[in-house]
Design goal:
about 15% helix, elongated, Immunoglobulin-like
Length: about 170
Amino acid sequence: MGTRFILLAVCLCLFSLSAVASQKKIYVWRDAKGVLVFSDTPQKNAEELNLNVSSIDMQAVDTSILYEETSTTTPDTAKFEIEITEPQHQATIRENSGSVYVSGRVSPRFENGLKIQLFLDGIATKEPQSSSIFALRDVDRGEHTLQMRLIDKDGKEISKSKSIIIYLHRKGL
């Protein structure tokens, strides 16, 4: 209701100002430096500008998108999707230190209270965290699976990503 009132007030102000502005006279002249000056106050050697103002008729616009809909979904009941964005599925990573950097994305939007947990070969790598960026250290060479899980504030899993496979190459001794 408050949003509608504000929108109506803004529209009325704009329309009333445009009507007042169309009734004003505009004058133009050059100053001592030769610069064009526009004003609503006549000056010496000023010329009155003739503004042809015509009313503009606009079609009605659907404004229903401006109003917020009350949503009954909460982060617990909303349909969230989570995906691993880096590394790509079946990526080969050449890193002698065994470091693997993993990032993900939550949609439609990451809500407060949600956490993400990363799994390497089915085992949680760390406690759930509020960031979707992970740095794994000293990962053994070979084939590994990665998966992210979205956890709500009660510790319940509400979504999980597809498992991806990565191949880590480390230089042998």
